[in-house]
Amino acid sequence: MRGVSAHWIANAVGGVLHAGAEVTVTSVVKDSRDAAPGALYAAFVGEQVDGHDYADKAFAAGATLALVSRPIDGPHIEVADVTVALGALAMHYLADLRRDGDICVIGITGSNGKTSTKDMLSQMLPHVVAPVGSHNNEIGLPLTVLSAGVETRYLVLEMGASAPGDLAYLTTIAPLDIGVELMVGSAHMGAYASREELAEEKATLLNGIVAGGVGILNADDPLVNAMSGRAPRTVTFGFGDADVAATDRGTEGGRASFSLRGERITLSLIGDHHATNALAAIAVALECGMSIEHVSAAASAALPVSPHRMALRERTDGVRILDDAYNASPESMRAAFRALKEVASGGRSWAVIGEMLEMGEASIPAHDFLGEDAVRLGIDHLVVVGQGARPAYISAVREGSWGDEALFVATIDEARQLVADRVEPGDTVLVKGSHGTGLWRLADQLIGEDS
Ligand SMILES: Nc1ncnc2c1ncn2[C@@H]1O[C@H](COP(=O)(O)OP(=O)(O)OP(=O)(O)O)[C@@H](O)[C@H]1O
Ligand SMILES: [Mg+2]
């Protein structure tokens, strides 16, 4: 972050500065444990903890200023709402960076694949800010913006749409030079009346593109393709008719490969679905002026960066854990089942799955489908964890699973025990569920149980 004065911040957020008039801020944090000398500590009031109680710790770690919604001891700026103030701060900060420098802001939305695409771009573009993890909401996004500096050439932002209006707000903070639409799936469906309404929300990202900017659209998703015309200019990507059109799509050992403009690209990432994310990242990088040779090599070499996303680990006992437990939606479950089948070839496949959360009324049919899908694909063992996911177990039994082909356990501990008792060398175990189910802990435990 480029240093800014306390006065500048107070002006940007419309807040009142109490002491600390002479300080300069060189980073912004929301966790007192991340505070370093020069930090602005933003105090949020959460369900469990009140950040104001940790301001002392932030100051002790070197923070020079706090952003607060009630007075505290020490230099601070008081505002009515810290989240809104953080957004305003990021908006003004980015506007200044744009005015003084040469920064290209890239925003990525879509029901699945935002983090994966961002992580690939971070391995393709020079002088890039694209932090590990998701950071796609009204707090994470401004913090990401504030981590850019004068030396940043590309700022890659993930933009999530969990409720109507989210994308309009996020693009107000960070107007885009390049806006990427990956797919309209059914994640976060609970907040929307229909997929069309969700598509309309996603399309608002394109309204946030600046004059002269470009929208990069997945031509293979009809709801995304229908958005062309909403951006000042459009570039499409896909495996059929598109501006950036790949051909000869295949997989090798669960890894996607395809041809593009004379280059053969084989991803290091696991899962056929990453072909779409890679192609999106490539379309962006080409638009940024990178050569086809460079982006092809970078796409093939790109490794998983953010944890729990299709991470394949082989334990010393010969059991492989496919950890895709960061989150789950119908599309990503479908993709993960198929990757599991490919990766497990030769050994037995286990899918240990937890609930897909935030599905609203679509929840029961979506879980029903999982059970059927697992059986039809021939996944050897389906372990369903937790009541919310139970319809997947019932439908697997209805679809013809018997004995121990489909199993139900109520808790993660039981799942862990079951897997420990049953897996054999050569087996591959997929672990996947929505973040809130905590199945990522099970993935960590299974990987840790290395003997
Ligand atoms: N095009 C795709 N189709 C289906 N599944 C996908 C696709 N892209 C990624 N996934 C899967 O979706 C899950 C989430 O991926 P990723 O973290 O990249 O998405 P995200 O859009 O950032 O999610 P979130 O909204 O939780 O931040 C992973 O299991 C990943 O393998
Ligand atoms: Mg993400």
Description:
The model has no long low-confidence stretch (mean pLDDT 94). The two termini are 44 Å apart. This protein has helices spanning 6-13, 55-60, 82-100, 114-122, 140-146, 166-173, 195-207, 222-225, 274-287, 292-301, 330-343, 363-377, 390-398, 412-422, 439-448, and strands at 4-5, 16-18, 24-25, 27-29, 39-42, 65-68, 76-78, 104-109, 128-129, 154-158, 176-181, 209-218, 234-238, 244-245, 247-252, 255-260, 263-270, 311-314, 320-323, 349-353, 381-385, 406-409, 428-432. It has 15 helices and 23 strands. Helix 3 (82-100) packs parallel to helix 5, helix 9 runs antiparallel to helix 10 (292-301) and helix 11 runs parallel beside helix 12. The chain is of the alpha/beta class. Bound molecules: adenosine-5'-triphosphate (ATP) and magnesium ion. Adenosine-5'-triphosphate binds next to helix 4, helix 9 and helix 11. Adenosine-5'-triphosphate binds at residues 110, 112-116, 134, 136, 158, 160, 183, 271, 273, 276-277, 309-310, 324, 326-327, 331-332, 335-336.
Task: Provide a quick synopsis of the model.
The chain is an alpha/beta fold and 451 residues long.
Give descriptors for this structure:
single chain; 451 residues; alpha/beta; 35% helix; globular; binds adenosine-5'-triphosphate; binds magnesium ion
